[in-house]
Amino acid sequence: MASLLILLKSIQSLLAKLGAVMRKIKSRTWKKQRYFKLEDDCMTIWYKSKKAGNAHSTFSVSDVEAIREGHQSEVLLSIADEFPAERCFTMVFRGRRANLDLVAESAEEAESWIRGMRKLIENLENMGEREKLDQWIWDWFKKADKNNDGRMNFKEVQNLLKMMNVDMNEQHAHRLFTMADKSQSGTLEDDEFVLFYKMLTQREDVLRVFQRYSADGQKLSLSDLDHFLREEQLVGDNVQQYAKQLIELYEPSDRAKLLNAMTFDGFLMYLGSAEGSIFSPQRRGVYQDMSQPLCHYFISSSHNTYLMEDQLRGQSSVEGYIRALKRGCRCVEVDCWDGANGEPIVYHGHTFTSKILFKDVVSAVGKYAFKVSDYPVILSIENHCSVEQQRVMAQHLNHILGDKLLKSTLDGKAPIRLPSPEDLKGKILLKAKKIGGLEESFSGTEDSLTGEPSDEDEVAEIDGDNLHRESVRSQGKGTAGRGAMLWPQAQTGIGYKSKQRLSKELSDCVVYCKSVRFNSFKHARIHSKVYEVASFTEYKARKHLREAGTEFVLHNSRQLTRVYPSGFRTDSSNFGPQEMWNAGCQIVALNFQTAGEGMDLNDGLFSQNGRCGYVLKPSFMREVEKTFDPEMPQKLDGYNPVISGQQLPKVNIKEDSIVDPLVRVEIHGVPTDQAKQETRYIDNNGFNPVWYDTLRFTIHTPDLAMVRFVVEDYDKTSKNDFVGQYTLPLTCMQQGYRHIYLLSKDGTSIPPSSLFVHIRITGLK
């Protein structure tokens, strides 16, 4: 740990200036002074107000994803006339935590914090696995060293064990303490604490595996490691070469490297690395064929993207778009309404949600659309605007997005099939209502006002789900005007049809994603165009899936379908996306702002293929000549995990509480595959519980199966507390002995909390 300490000390001296009074800004009227400083560990930011007495708050540098300079948030933009950009910056946190907007006393001080924080973030991102573990140990040392004397007495060690979820009798703890106290000083210093930690974290589960394959019980020879990789990890090709690479990468002992051998420490390092992860490294990058039609992919999609909270009184913010796009989302929703001064606004209509400008949303999308993925972004427009403000929308789209906005088909012809994500790289597509079809555009008849445009179903369905919402106001007064056309729109529960006019300028921005009203699968098969997109509430989609699953899958092999949450979900909760994927629905829109099982599954599915937001559907869902019924799949594979866990986080705020962990393994897929099983719970051990429980599942359609590992703190008197989870596609799982690094409820990592599992997938006859 000495090298890490030297590194931290040098950064600390470099960033010694990081202690200052700054203004924390929440709004134009909420601007309060806080004292911020970087603590000695160079990992913790400490801050307090002058009036708070001894009360203070802290957060870890590891919680901060990025630093934005200047007026790069809505809050800081709102006070731009009061504080210059060079004194302002924003700390952007991981997950769903609100950003921290700050104003320094001077431009120099702001620059010092910006540069210092970026250096710390960069340092963290460049840490290897061993350095991260050293950092974690050092963090615990600092927490336990209550009197800050750089050493720990036995009482401090006892308190540390409780903090670390370890229930150990005093006699055994004292024996380990004495063994680690090489200086016999009655305290543990840096290296002695590392030794104590190693004794505490002795991995008996891994040691058993190591000794089973080690000929001498001390090391794995090249032949031993080759045998382990073939038998357990099911490595098939160039095994000896791969074994040599692992030794070179993960073996810390130079002597062992010379012998082409791996010690137990090296074996631990390998199993804790990306190579030893449950997620196959070959599936992390873009590995799928990206040249197929758009409708052949599942597309990461967001519902009511502008909302940060609930659907009735929640805050609307461009930050919602930034966060969704940075998570790889490729389809975002924009609810557009007439605003003041001729500027369209975005909000959840007829509610108390706050309002933001349409042009600010377009700017954010233009800036962040391709930060994490080059593949196309779809702007799903729910249009409630007058013709005049629709024209303003079209102006903003063209002016702000420029060449990124797709304005015509790629080959200048009416399409007979949708283009591919590869064809559309770097492009932003508009999904909205359109006057007529693409065929009219190329035949020169698009200006005729006699043709009736197709119905768009989405607003009517939303009205049906939200009877409390008012109907979209009629635009029937006066004439349609130049470049506008009347749009008949069915109003569920209203009893009449109002007509909305569309501006030609906005209509022309719609190319491959024309919103239409769905009639029936038979009607769509005969009359629909490949560029037409139907939208369903979760209830309607479920009904179609139940009554005509095979036809639904077939429909989705030809054109795009969007499914969105019921309007009754005013708390922004999510439905389970898996059943919609089972039907081949591509645009399954979820409330990204709400953590939980729905978003865990979404994050899990799109964690593959470079996190690019597009996942190729299985071949049986893409080929028109094949028929797939999600209700009646064929039996294909069996799957068995065996489990142990390490360093699970505390979930109970009581100081003397220790986790009683259990693991639940859930299979999400076609209905016959849906299953869950639990291990027994382990009393008072969140540090290194071992279950050795075997859970067996039968999987009929592995190409659609998602596996979710959930750790909970067992409570016999109330609902279990959530500890952590990890979700991934079954097809991305590596077999053998693997580590699973757990994620928080918010989807952020909680190192070094992990599960250690043995996975075997066997074919069934």
UniProtKB/TrEMBL annotation:
Residue stretches making up the PI-PLC Y-box domain: 506-622
Organism (species): Scophthalmus maximus
UniProt-recorded name of the protein: Phosphoinositide phospholipase C
EC number(s) per entry: 3.1.4.11
InterPro entries: C2_dom, C2_domain_sf, EF-hand-dom_pair, EF_Hand_1_Ca_BS, EF_hand_dom, PH-like_dom_sf, PH_domain, PI-PLC_fam
Native organism taxonomy: Eukaryota, Metazoa, Chordata, Craniata, Vertebrata
GO molecular function, one term: phosphatidylinositol-4,5-bisphosphate phospholipase C activity
Residue span, C2 domain: 618-744
Pfam families given in the database record: C2, EF-hand_like, PH, PI-PLC-X, PI-PLC-Y
